[in-house]
Design brief:
mainly beta, seven-stranded mixed β-sheet, four-stranded antiparallel β-sheet
């Protein structure tokens, strides 16, 4: 079973860059047809799809976040990354890593990111 573990700084100052890590175990991030997605949930709001990196390394982003978001991976470390720059207080949220393939769906426990000076 695929397991995901997000990690990150917790607290980021406005205008700084956020870097999050999703460490994957129980399966390879290059396994065919898997898609690795970053999703966030601001306090009191719904889930927001941020972007995805496919098993083949292709990436797609939410149009509203595309200009300041990048998703990458390290195959040797079996890890997926999220980088977002120019953070603002409204980027405060729980950030989740998700793995999906066909009819299966796996979630990490999430990592809280607070943007505050």
């Amino acid at each position: 079973q695929v397991q995901l573990q997000e990690s990150g700084p917790g607290l980021v100052k406005p205008s700084q860059t956020l870097s999050l890590t999703c460490t994957v175990s129980g399966g390879s991030i290059t396994t065919s047809y898997y898609a690795w997605t970053w999703i966030r949930q601001p306090p009191g709001k719904g889930l927001e799809w941020m972007g995805v990196i496919g098993y083949d390394g292709s990436t797609y982003y939410s149009p509203s976040l595309k200009s300041r978001t990048s998703i990458s991976r390290d195959n040797a470390k079996n890890t997926v990354y999220l980088q977002m720059n120019s953070l603002q207080p409204e980027d405060t949220a729980a950030y989740y890593c998700n793995a999906a393939v066909l009819d299966r769906d796996y979630w990490g426990q999430g990592t809280q990111v607070t943007v505050s000076s």
